[in-house]
Amino acid sequence: MRGLDPRTLAEVVGPAHVLTDPDLTARYLTDWTRRRTGSADAVVRPRTTADVVEVLRACAEAGTAVVTQGGNTGLVGGSVPEGAAGPTILMSTERMTDIGEVDTVEMCVGVQAGATVAAIAASATAAGAHFGVDLASRDSATAGGIVATNAGGVHVVRHGNTRAQLLGIEAVLADGGVLRRWSPLRKDNVGYDLPGLLAGSEGTLAVITAVLFALVDPPGPTAVAVIGAEDPGTVFAVVAALRRAGLVIEAAELMTRAGVALVVDAGARPALRTAPRYQLLVEAAGADPAQRLAAVLADLGVDDAVVDDGPARAFWALRERHTEAIAAASETVPVKLDVGIRRRDLATFLAELDELAAAAPYPCRPVVFGHAADGNLHVNLLDVPLSEQAALARQVLDSVVARGGSVSAEHGVGRDKRDWLALARDGADVEAMRAIKRAWDPENRMNPGVLFPP
Ligand SMILES: Cc1cc2nc3c(=O)[nH]c(=O)nc-3n(C[C@H](O)[C@H](O)[C@H](O)COP(=O)(O)OP(=O)(O)OC[C@H]3O[C@@H](n4cnc5c(N)ncnc54)[C@H](O)[C@@H]3O)c2cc1C
Question: What is the pLDDT of residue 88?
Answer without folding.
Answer: 96
